[in-house]
Structures are given as structure tokens and as C-alpha cells.
Amino acid sequence: MFPKPHASLTPNTFEFEQFPLVKPTGFREYDARWLFPKEINLMGVQALGLGIGTLVHEMGVRPDIVTGHDFRSYSSSIKLALIAGMQAAGLRVKDVGLALSPMAYFGQFALDCPCVAMVTASHNDNGWTGVKMGANRPMTFGPDEMGRLKEIVCGGTFQYRDGGSYEFVEGFLDTYLADLKARAKPITRKLKVVAACGNGTAGAFAPKLLESLGVEVVPLDVTPDYTFPRYNPNPEDMEMLHAIAHAVKEHGADVGLGFDGDGDRCGVVDNEGEEIFADKIGVMLARDLSKLHPGATFVVDVKSTGLYNTDPELQAQAVKADYWKTGHSYIKRRVNELGALAGFEKSGHFFFNEPIGQGYDDGLLTAIAVIEMLDRNPDKSMADLYRALPKTWGSPTMSPHCDDEVKYGVVEKVTQRFQAMKEAGETVGGAKITDLVTVNGVRVSTEDGTWGLVRASSNKPELVVVIESPVSEARLHEMFKAVDGILRENEGIGAYNQTI
């Protein structure tokens, strides 16, 4: 039998090479992330593969699985270790090679595989690895499946099975891009587009797709370099957005598009170099798509702007907004449950259902949607469309460090603190509390519409803080000061990655 994984082992020891290492905290709410090799070694990845196969059979799902890997120096070796474990557990593996996460999700449909295991650390810094998994297309695992997988792997309760096999699917990148191009409508407007890839995996995909649509492409950081020398490929980080904005102004582009490390997210900068947070892009796309699909339902995460509920143009199209838990698996599942036209996350995960997409998050499909929106508004620039939104002042996603072992407890204490303040009639940031949404962390709203969110990050040892005010920039800062003050009543809160 394969050895039971250890929760900790010291690298460069005989034990490290003899036993699997799997740190239990790597099992997140809806995927898995570890520092490699500090928190997981290759034998640990084999154990994960055995666990995935054991769970798939336990769920009664046909054991066909598609896998791929992102562009990191160690991702290919991790994928091979994962495949070894999955085969030993009786899974029939189809390997699409170097891939974006949405390419692997597409493979579930195109290759008729109910299951997926994509080796990627997404936008996490270099040194991280992970796996995005699912066994019911287009959904990926949620907390129940991830909890059960953790039990199997950490407990070493693997079930070996015969029948495992391996097939490499040659040329699948071109198949994936051809499907995306077929979904796009002909572009009649002359457009110049900056395509920023942060030296990550998307550099092999995004420029080629955009050129096939007939737009002029200005490539930015598309050369592969897994050290990510300029910035982390994360379109939520201001450093990447600033680089895109500079390129847009330098080249006179109509729009700048930034893709994250595994290509399932897309960030946007307008033609004037203004960085547009993804939740506002979602409102713009909802405005555009609701004209084609009046009465549509859009699922949005709790980090997102309140405009989905208050925008007059969306109200005129009888749009229904459903605020739900942050996280690609949560939003994906909710879009599927409600039959929503699309789901939008402030992080830039956008999920388009039929007739636009197949329900999973794909940054390249988001890029197509943005370009088609511009094409349908030939007399307006991206900046014009952005200015047409009601004005609000919003923060980027801000993440103070907080260890995985304590972050959920901190959020629970902050939630209880806000609940007590509301019951006592206290103010936050100088305004009365009118509403608390606790579906995912706590989102506290005040009487003037200003709100703040605190939740635990699902994939890193961090908390997440977001603030928005429809009143003024001053109210934005007042609310942030108040929320941060309550947050720091707790021990273990570190520095922010970025602040306002």
C-alpha cells in the first residue's frame, strides 16, 4: 500500500524522499494550493492523485479525466506524479499538455470526460502549486468534495483499481482556440488591443486568439518566464493593471486586457489608461448583454459593487442580480443552479452560460465579450461606456496576511463584532449600520450605501477586504479606516498586499 502522507517533513532528508508530504491546510474550499516542495512533495502529489481517483469512484462518476498543466518550472513534473496516482486508482487519463484552466474545462466537453484535474497555482506567486478539480462538468469541487478528498488523502484510505490508462491529446490547444473563435461574432470595428500575460501561460493563447478575431494586438509580457520577472500575472493586482495602462497610452490602444496565470480571469483597462475593476466590467457587460437578453439573471459575488442592484439601466431591462459566495466553484455552481446568463466575480472570474459559453470561467471568452461590447457600440470608447455607469468609489481587493489556521476564526469574531454594533445602534465610519450580509464573511452596509467586506481568502493565508461608497472618496476612506480598525482588534493580522 502507498504510505499514509505526513503533515510535515524536512526537505533534503531521506524521509522526504521515502514518504509523501501533504500539508492538510493545502485543501482549500474549492481547490488545492501548496508551496512546493515545502508543503507537498512529489510523493504527496501521487497521494493526491490516488485520492482523486478514490473519490471519483466513490461518487459513482465514470472514471474519465482530463488533465493539463500551467507554465511553471515544476508543473509538468507535478502533473506526471498526479497522473501516476490517478492511474493507480483506476482513472482513464487524457492529458492535453500545457494548458489554461478553461482549456482543461473545455476538454471535459470536447473529450467527453466528466472529470478534470488541472495542475495550476493560478495567480499565486512563484513557488506555489495546486490542482483545480471537478467530477460534474462544468462545476468544480466545493467544500463537501474538498473535505472528503482531504479525509481520503490525509488518512491514506486509498482504493487501488485496475483499468487506469493514459493518452496524450495532441494539438488540443488549436481545438480549444477554434471553439472560442467559433463562438465569437464577426468584429466590424477596427480595434487595437493590448494583451498582457505576465509572462505566464496565457502568452501561448491570448495573442493568437485575439489576432484571429481581426483586431490589432499589442503583446505585453507574453514571452514565457516562470520567474514572473515584471509582476505576478494577476489582473487584480494594481502593479499589473498599471503596466497595462502604460502600454495602452503608449500605443493608443482601444482597450487593455490582462490575463492571469492560468487564463481563467481577465482584467480590463480603458482607452484612457483607467483601470476598471472587474465588478464594474461585469456591470458594463450586464448592460450590454441584457439588451440582447432582457430579464436575464446575473450571479455576482459579495465582493462586488452594489450597482448590480441599483443601476437604472439594469433595472430598465428587468435584470435580476443574485449576490452569492466568493469563489469560482461557488459562483459557477450558482450560475448552473439558477440558469443564469452569466456570473461575475470581482476577482475577474466570469462565467458565461449558453448561448455564450458552457458555464465555466474563461478569461479568453471574457475578452471576446468585451471586444463584442465595443463592436456593438461603435460610436463609444471603452472610457465612454465606463463613464456611463453611476459613479461609485471602490477599493481594489486588499489582502492582509493572516495564517490559514486562524483566518476563519478572525472573520467569525469580526462578524460577531459587527452584529453586536448593529444591535446596539452603533455607527461604523460615522454612519448607521443598515444591513449585514453573512453569506461569505461579513458585508456591512450603512445608511448612505457605503459598505465594507471582510472574508477569509479561500486559497492563500490572507483575509480579503473590499470597500465601496456611492457618496465620495472621503467616505470610502472613512469606511476603510473603520473596518480596518475593527479587524486589527484581533491578533495575527499582518500587512496588506495593497491599500487605498
From TrEMBL:
Against SUPFAM superfamilies, the record matches this protein to: Phosphoglucomutase, C-terminal domain (SSF55957), Phosphoglucomutase, first 3 domains (SSF53738)
Sorted keywords for this record are:
Isomerase, Magnesium, Metal-binding, Phosphoprotein
Q: Does the keyword Phosphoprotein apply?
A: yes
The reply to whether Lipoprotein figures as a keyword in the UniProt entry is: no
What GO biological process terms are annotated to this protein in UniProt?
A: carbohydrate metabolic process
A Gene Ontology MF term for this entry? phosphomannomutase activity
Q: Which InterPro entries match?
A: A-D-PHexomutase_a/b/a-I, A-D-PHexomutase_a/b/a-I/II/III, A-D-PHexomutase_a/b/a-II, A-D-PHexomutase_a/b/a-III, A-D-PHexomutase_C, A-D-PHexomutase_C_sf, Alpha-D-phosphohexomutase_SF
A Pfam family cross-referenced in the UniProt record is: PGM_PMM_III
Question: What sort of enzyme, by top EC class, is this?
Answer: isomerase
Q: Which EC number(s) does UniProt give?
A: 5.4.2.2, 5.4.2.8
Extract the PANTHER family matched here.
PHOSPHOMANNOMUTASE, PHOSPHOMANNOMUTASE_PHOSPHOGLUCOMUTASE
Q: Which family does it belong to?
A: Belongs to the phosphohexose mutase family.
What is the name attached to this protein's record? Phosphoglucomutase
Q: Which organism is it from?
A: Methylobacterium brachythecii
